Amino acid sequence: MHRLIFLLTFSTLGADAGVLPLHGSSELVYPQLLEERAANGELKLHITDDLVLTLRKSSVAAPLLRLITTENGKEVTNFLDGKAIESTIYHDVTKMASVSITQAGSGIEVEGLISPEKRIEPAREQARLATGLIPHVIYAIDSGGVHDSVIYNHKMSAPDPVTARSISGTETVPKKVTVEIFVISDTHHSQFFHNKTKLTVYVCLIINVANIRLSETSDPTIQLLFTGIEVSKNEPYLNDKGYMLNAETTIQALGRYAFHVKQRLGYPDTLYLFTGRDAYGQRWGRSDRGLRGLGYDNGLCSDWFVALGEDVPGTFSGADTFAHEVAHLLGASHDGQPPDPRYPGRPGAEHCPFHYGYLMGNAKRSRFGHHYSQCGLQQMRLRGSACWRVTATKTYNVTKKYPGMVLTMEAYCQRKFAAKKDVTASEYFKAQCSVR
């Protein structure tokens, strides 16, 4: 898998009342909502005079989110209210922004991506203004350093080739397809987050921005639905649980693991592992630490429906890698590649040169780097009716749901902090615990 690299530059905006420079890669701002929700559901979020987001409510989580954790050495499955989790999440398609907005007293707190290159979070050590506005910091998103691995064009193929899906002009496809995705956050990734709700919202924001990119698909329009997350200490798909991660052996073990526990995961269409480790692969007989992620080519509707990618937790550094690897699962190859003979009738991407700089090519410093090329979009569209028919008609369902497994946020918070008194769901954010 070639490395996704973005060389980011940051120019400090004018130091007006809402923008104060901190240092070369960040700035202090005071976001505020300009108006109440418009009739069409839009919100106007003023971050700086040069950056105003036009936000719409996002829908990215399943009604019940499966949460798999380890308690007293045993894996436990609970379910969270997906609608409560996503209740704070909004997006701006034009600016490719994906943010969470929560009320905090008379002000608001904003977290997430305000563009593909910048993220925002509250500056909790800074005092709020007399007007109640809460200080926030904008950071550049570091998607990786500059390495020669930009030419690393490795592609994972399933050990047993998936059945070829023939394409014919008579096949019909649905207008929209929802692809369920289950997420695993490894120990080096999940340990950053103070609670599972923060982690779950963070994953929602990354999937949400991937859906913005996927909104450019058509016939069918493809969207991801977040169905659950595993935060396990066991990590049976890892041979070595140190900081380095062999991506090629891990993804094979991950594929076998996902196949065997698919029922416990709720039969998702795809699975993605967020790792906080440093992934590496083999190139020309040497270890290549420039590798950012791997995904099985054409993995959707096969037994090898998994992908993985690096992410520095809390920074959204893995958002582009996620969108890239998921596209492999959905059928997109690297730009510039010829048709795969295993899939008769499936187009290649040879008419979209790798150096054009789209998301499936050399996206380094390219204005197209956050978009799929027409070749990639066509490959994802022309999957064959057999796959799309099953995926489009599948109804999300929680199997083997027993009394006590579905937790209200109030009950989840009290269980999470059993040793403490006066534990409730947050007054302002019902998907967040509050300990008084």
UniProtKB/TrEMBL annotation:
Highest taxon listed in the record's lineage: Eukaryota
Active site (UniProt): E325
Residue ranges of domain Peptidase M12B in the record: 177-381
Entry keywords, A to Z: Hydrolase, Metal-binding, Metalloprotease, Protease, Signal, Zinc
Gene Ontology BP terms: membrane protein ectodomain proteolysis
Binding residues annotated for Zn(2+), in chain numbering: H324, H328, H334
Residues annotated as signal peptide: 1-17
GO molecular function, one term: metalloendopeptidase activity
Record-linked PANTHER family: ADAM A DISINTEGRIN AND METALLOPROTEASE DOMAIN, ADAM METALLOPROTEASE
UniProt-recorded name of the protein: Peptidase M12B domain-containing protein
Species lineage: Eukaryota, Metazoa, Ecdysozoa, Arthropoda, Chelicerata
